[in-house]
Amino acid sequence: MSLFKIASVAAIALTLGACQSLFQPNYRAPLETTRDASEQLKPGCANPECPLVNIDTLRFPDEPALDGIIEKRLLQMTRTSPDAPVAPTLAAYREQFLSSAGPRYSSYLQAKVREQHDGLVIVELSSYLDTGGAHGTPGRGFINYSRQQHKVLTLSDMLIPGQEEAFWKAAQVAHNSWLISTKLDQEPEFVKSWPFVKTQNVALTYGGVILKYEVSTLAPYALGHVELKIPYPRLNGILKPELFPGRS
User: Fold this and answer.
1) In this protein, which residues make up the domain named DUF3298 (predicted)?
2) CATH architecture observed for domain 34-153
3) Rounded to whole angstroms, how far apart are CA atoms 239 and 159?
């Protein structure tokens, strides 16, 4: 092959590579979001004890599938029992809640972006239901959304096959670190009454894997939603390598 032909082939290859890169999504750039917030009182009510619903959620214009995922998860958080039905939409939930709510009842639902990095969108979900008692019922959750795969990552998706037990052992180490940092390890009754438990709320944040607990599961209600943090170096051989920050 002549030198001219070799140069021509190389130039074409470089051009094709550049075009391919040009049309690939830039996963390091965060997705744009728009806020969708509203608060509505029970129709016809005009006193300080009017029931209300406050919904503060997000829209992703370039990833509309995520909008539906967030709405579905927020609706699941409105359940008052495991087998309770859920409304088909947030608008329908608001209407149903206000039609039957008593004085001082309120429901708050929120979705916010906690982080975006390495093609992952970490959405934190919050709920709070007040039915007029001494205190309301708060809830928390996470969505770990992969832009490359266009799906929500479950714990099984995150871990190397066969490493779930090792993951929860690392979580127990993080729990022990939390006990020491709060000095609760010095209270034998607390350690006995509030042992380590697993949680479904796992987030792949840039600074470490976060486990977030519902109130009254890892500690008394007054301590709120406890967060445990597992540093990434402890998850070598446990977490899939491509999910470590900077490796995607």
Assistant:
1) 156-232
2) 2-Layer Sandwich (3.30)
3) 4
